[in-house]
């Protein structure tokens, strides 16, 4: 009977470790890696990922590829991402801080290379009932991403035909900006 | 003394069992066999209510960003067409017909950022195709004429194919991986 108790303890412990390894540990490990790569860049600032850091989190992409990042923090209000992209293939993906995809758009879907995207906190259950009509209209009229997580990052991906193109693509993409939304 | 041993053994079994089963599930449940031939596996990176935590964990646990499934499909393969493990000591011919996606990337992992000479990734922008549209890529540690990817590390290798989503994704034929020499 006593051995059965310890078998149950082992099984429960195994389930807890399994769930932690799958659901929680990967997100924290990823966030720690991202913090290390961009430790000197403040939140709500757009930057081009250096080639050295790029190979650590995007090993499957050649070094000519350009990645632009904005790590957003919505605790003090919405953040606006003003995108300035080169003509050609690109994608934008908005992730939660634990790597969950919140939003994606490509050059083919958007049809434009310059646009603004607003990132804001998703309303809580109680907020949904207290929203005024005009607030809903604002949400429906623009490009807006609602995140349930107050922190995350927006990632631009621009492929280059060869390494020599990286500088030019970086220059165009670096005109993008990310900052607290003006009301 | 025996009672203490049972307690320690139970705790160890729980921790090691949970850890080992998570790693095994991340590889097996996070991906599924892709294509009729070959040993390619497709990673399930769907978002929202259909998301597969095991597929996402595969990327995040290595500190890598998981590509959004609405934009890219990710395939990996660690075996050649005869079922042998891919090794950096061998030369492989990766042949594709009909890889017509708007953009794709073929890379050999694991990566090693310290190896500056490695060119372990090739994209659709760089690849040279034969007049009939077919594509042949050599994977070897030493230079090979034509399309060539050089693994960055010694030992076991994994090929990764990232394909942008297009209207013709259902027609995608995954490349064959043939061992040429060892």
Query: What is the overall pLDDT average of chain A?
Result: 82
What is the CA–CA distance across the termini of chain B?
54 Å
Structural class of chain A: alpha+beta
Shape of chain B: globular
- Please identify, by name, the CATH architecture of chain B: Sandwich
Q: How would you characterize this protein structure?
A:
Chain A has 6 helices and 9 strands, in the order H-E-H-E-E-E-E-H-E-H-H-E-E-H-E. Chain A is an alpha+beta fold. In chain A, the strands form 2 sheets. In chain A, strands 1-2-8-4-5 form a 5-stranded antiparallel β-sheet. Chain A has a 4-stranded mixed β-sheet with strand order 7-6-3-9, with no helix packed on it. The longest helix of chain A is centred in the first third of the chain and has 36 residues, at 2-37. Chain A is globular, with a radius of gyration of 20 Å. Chain B has 182 residues and is of the alpha+beta class. Chain B has a single domain (2-181), classed as Sandwich (Jelly Rolls). In chain B, 19% of the residues lie in helices and 26% in strands. Chain B contains 2 helices and 10 strands, in the order αββαββββββββ. Chain B has helices at 2-28, 53-60, and strands spanning 31-33, 41-43, 72-77, 91-96, 104-109, 121-123, 135-139, 147-149, 158-164, 176-181. In chain B, strands 1-2-3-9-5-6 form a 6-stranded antiparallel β-sheet. Chain B has a 4-stranded mixed β-sheet with strand order 8-7-4-10, with no helix packed on it. The N and C termini of chain B lie far apart (54 Å). The interface between A and B is large, with 51 and 54 residues.
């Amino acid at each position: 009977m006593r051995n059965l108790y310890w078998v149950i303890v082992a099984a429960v412990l195994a389930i807890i470790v399994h769930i932690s390894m799958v659901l929680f540990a990967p997100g924290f490990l990823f966030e720690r890696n991202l913090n290390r790569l961009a430790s000197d860049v403040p939140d709500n600032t757009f930057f081009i990922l250096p080639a050295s850091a790029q190979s650590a989190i995007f090993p499957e992409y050649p070094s000519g590829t350009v990645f632009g990042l904005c790590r957003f923090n919505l605790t003090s209000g919405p953040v606006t991402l003003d995108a300035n992209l080169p003509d050609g293939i690109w994608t934008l993906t908005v992730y939660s801080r634990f790597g969950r995809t919140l939003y994606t758009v490509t050059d083919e879907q958007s049809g434009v290379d310059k646009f603004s995207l607003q990132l804001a906190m998703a309303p809580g259950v109680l907020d949904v009932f207290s929203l005024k009509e005009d607030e809903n209209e604002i949400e429906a009229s623009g490009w807006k991403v609602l995140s349930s997580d107050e922190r995350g990052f927006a990632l631009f991906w621009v492929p280059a035909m060869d390494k020599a193109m990286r500088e030019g693509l970086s220059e165009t993409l670096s005109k993008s900006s990310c900052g607290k939304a003006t009301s | 003394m025996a009672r203490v041993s049972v307690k320690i053994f139970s705790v160890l079994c729980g921790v090691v069992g949970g850890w080992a089963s998570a790693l095994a599930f991340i590889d097996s449940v996070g991906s599924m066999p892709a294509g009729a031939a070959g040993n390619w596996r497709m990673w399930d990176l769907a978002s929202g209510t259909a998301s597969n935590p095991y597929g996402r964990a595969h990327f995040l646990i290595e500190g890598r960003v998981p590509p959004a499934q609405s934009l890219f499909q990710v395939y990996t393969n660690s075996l050649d067409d005869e079922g042998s493990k891919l090794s950096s000591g061998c030369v492989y011919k990766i042949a594709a017909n009909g890889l017509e996606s708007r953009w794709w990337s073929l890379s050999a992992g694991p990566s090693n950022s310290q190896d500056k000479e490695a060119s372990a990734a090739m994209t659709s922008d760089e690849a040279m195709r034969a007049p009939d549209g077919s594509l042949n890529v050599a994977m070897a540690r030493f230079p090979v004429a034509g399309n060539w990817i050089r693994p960055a590390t010694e030992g076991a290798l994994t090929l990764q194919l990232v394909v942008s989503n297009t209207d013709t994704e259902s027609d995608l034929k995954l490349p064959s991986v043939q061992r040429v020499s060892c």
